């Protein structure tokens, strides 16, 4: 392929999508393409879409327009969950040339192979081509991991979901649960370590379900299966990676043995993100979740009993059909009673072909938005309380290369975000810091104890840290 052709990417949605986009980018580069920024214009644009929110169509259209505004003659490819769910709808978007479903996502370069050899296939199409199949036929696993950021990589270990939550389109977009092998995940982790990356985030649709559909011929006989706990133990031995972080795990799959192992591990960090979705058992039942409030309380208490400093993030959905004001208050009070650190709040939106789309009564949109704001405020309170609990403790920060306006950021092992004056010597370095005090504006002062050539004073404001001054060590 010609090395003169450029390709640009934009990713919507989750960490899993970012891992897959990065892998697609490497495929293009291996075929002679030069990767460029989306804003700079390109010969080919690839938009990797999400289906979780009601804005999927609007977001997709917006980035197609942006691509063609930069490069009017560019070849536009749309893939991802939205492309699998509604390929015809995407094909009708003006300017889209190729729609790639779940089964063909990792075969994109084969579908555009001729155009890089001068065959003319790159010319804009009057009607987009669709390459997809029924989701029931999607049963293979494609490895993926992000690259380009030497600090953190997202490593895909699992895909699809066998759960049947009444509001969710993911099983229809990604298919049934399937996993990589432990052997291959370890191999990919070692490849990432060779790039100098210090932290790996384990990603998937339902990572705790790892191995559920993949018999393991190497452990305890051919009828045994690899488990997520087996994977955690294997990755804990990988050299060259300082931190492993679990992106998200269902409470019913977060076992005592996983929690106990993380508590003792030097590589797996004290940070769990555990979806809750509702604090009302009635609503959880309507959502077809696989647990009730009691189990969630047990998981949080188990974590905090072993790791009081552990960060716990929570997903919650507001405005689910049938959620009364009393149900919402029950959720609010339940979350308020938990020793958690922050919330990701989602406003329920109707999704085609889901069971919940027919549920009544419907919560008015404005009421959904109001409940979202209330829980976001609670999240800020929870985060400030979590930061206060860390005052006076020493934490280790991994500083990231990305910087803006002379400021650089980093995260502690328990997910406290810090910021300080740009110092290239700190990029991708683990440094010990002391969380000193909360300022009157709600910030946390940190005192790095082991920075090369200098000590930096910075403070956290709403999850980020503003620079104060430097004193040389």
SSE inventory with pairings:
Blueprint: E1 6-11, H1 15-30, E2 34-35, E3 44-49, H2 56-70, E4 75-80, H3 81-85, H4 87-91, E5 98-100, H5 108-111, E6 129-131, E7 144-145, E8 152-156, E9 158-159, H6 170-174, E10 178-179, H7 182-194, E11 199-203, H8 228-235, E12 243-246, H9 256-264, E13 271-277, H10 281-287, H11 293-306, E14 311-318, H12 325-337, E15 342-347, H13 365-389, E16 394-404, E17 407-412, E18 417-421, E19 430-438, E20 444-448, E21 455-461, E22 464-471
Parallel strand pairs: 1-2, 1-3, 3-4, 4-5, 5-6, 8-11, 11-12, 13-14, 14-15
Antiparallel strand pairs: 7-8, 9-10, 16-17, 16-19, 17-18, 19-20, 20-21, 21-22
Helix pairs in contact: 7-8, 9-11
Walkthrough of the structure:
The chain is of the alpha/beta class. It folds into three domains: 6-135, 3-Layer(aba) Sandwich (Rossmann fold); 139-269, Transcription Regulator spoIIAA (2-Layer Sandwich); 394-471, no CATH class. Helices cover 29% and strands 25% of the residues. The protein has a seven-stranded antiparallel beta sheet with strand order 18-17-16-19-20-21-22, with no helix packed on it. Helix 7 runs parallel beside helix 8 (228-235). It is globular. The model is unreliable at 115-121, 215-223 and 453-473 (pLDDT under 50).
């Amino acid at each position: 392929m010609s090395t003169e052709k450029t390709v640009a990417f934009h990713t919507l949605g989750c960490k899993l999508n970012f891992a897959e986009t990065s892998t697609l980018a490497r495929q293009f580069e291996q075929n002679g393409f030069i990767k460029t920024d989306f804003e700079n214009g390109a010969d080919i644009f690839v938009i990797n879409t999400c289906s979780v929110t009601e804005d999927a169509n609007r977001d997709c259209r917006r980035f197609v327009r942006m691509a063609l505004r930069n490069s009017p003659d560019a070849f536009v490819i749309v893939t991802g969950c939205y492309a699998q769910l509604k390929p015809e709808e995407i094909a009708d978007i003006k300017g889209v040339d190729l729609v790639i479903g779940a089964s063909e996502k990792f075969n994109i370069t084969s579908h555009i192979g001729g155009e890089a050899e001068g065959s003319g296939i790159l010319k804009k199409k009057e009607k987009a081509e669709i390459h997809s199949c029924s989701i029931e036929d999607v049963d293979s696993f494609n490895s993926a991991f992000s690259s380009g950021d030497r600090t953190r990589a997202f490593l895909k270990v699992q895909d699809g979901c066998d759960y049947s939550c009444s509001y969710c389109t993911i099983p229809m977009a990604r298919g049934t649960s399937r996993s990589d092998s432990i052997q291959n995940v370890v191999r990919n982790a070692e490849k990432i370590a060779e790039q100098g990356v210090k932290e790996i985030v384990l990603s998937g649709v339902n990572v705790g379900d790892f191995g559920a559909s993949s018999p393991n011929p190497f452990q305890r006989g051919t009828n045994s299966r690899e488990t997520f706990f087996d994977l955690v133990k294997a990755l804990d031995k990988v050299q060259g990676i300082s931190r492993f972080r679990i992106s998200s795990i269902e409470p019913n799959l977060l076992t005592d043995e996983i929690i106990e192992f993380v508590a003792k591990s030097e590589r797996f960090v004290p940070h769990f993100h555990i979806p809750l979705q509702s604090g009302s058992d009635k609503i959880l039942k309507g959502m077809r979740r696989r647990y009730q409030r009691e189990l969630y309380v047990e998981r949080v208490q188990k974590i905090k009993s072993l790791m009081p400093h552990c960060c716990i993030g929570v997903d919650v959905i507001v405005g689910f059909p049938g959620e009364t004001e009393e149900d919402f208050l029950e959720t609010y009070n339940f979350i308020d009673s938990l020793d958690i650190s922050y919330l990701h709040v989602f406003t329920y939106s109707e999704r085609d072909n889901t069971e919940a789309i027919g549920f009544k009564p419907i919560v008015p949109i404005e009421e959904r938005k109001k409940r979202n704001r209330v829980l976001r405020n609670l999240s800020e309170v929870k985060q400030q309380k979590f930061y206060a609990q860390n005052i006076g403790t020493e934490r280790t920060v991994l500083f990231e290369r990305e910087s803006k306006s002379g400021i650089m950021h980093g995260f502690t092992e328990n997910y406290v975000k810090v910021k300080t004056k740009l110092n290239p010597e700190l990029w991708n370095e683990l440094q010990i810091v002391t969380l000193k005090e909360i300022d009157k504006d709600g910030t946390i002062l940190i005192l790095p104890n082991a920075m090369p050539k200098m000590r930096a004073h910075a403070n956290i404001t709403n999850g980020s840290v503003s620079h104060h001054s430097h004193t040389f060590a």
